[in-house]
Amino acid sequence: MGFQFKLSGVIQCRRAKRGLVEWATLTWVDWFNNRRLLEPIGNIPPTEAEANYYSHSPESVMSA
After folding, report:
1. Which residues pair with 38 in a beta bridge?
2. 24 touches 18 (CB < 8 A)
3. Rounded to whole angstroms, what are the CA distances from 61 to 37, 46, 53, 58?
4. Where are the domains of the chain?
5. Which residues lie across from 48 on neighbouring strands?
6. Over the stretch 30-40, which tens digit does the pLDDT of each residue have?
7. What does the mean pLDDT of the chain come to?
8. Residue 12: strand, helix, or coil
9. What pTM was estimated for this model as a whole?
10. Which residues on neighbouring strands pair with residue 62, listed in sequence order?
11. Are 49 and 41 in contact (CB under 8 A)?
12. Are residues 7 and 21 in contact, defined by beta-carbon separation less than 8 angstroms?
């Protein structure tokens, strides 16, 4: 990636507020990776699509 995410450089605040921002970021990343529905792959979450892909793939793809 071209940039580095530095929370302390973005937000100058107390430790409690920084923790809230970190929690909000982690919540969003969890939603983005595990819960959002993608229309091009059948309105299923990316993690489910990945599991389906590897369950129907030959052994050579899984070991690579």
Report:
1. 44
2. no
3. 25, 18, 10, 6
4. 15-56
5. none
6. 999 899 999 99
7. 78
8. coil
9. 0.55
10. none
11. yes
12. yes
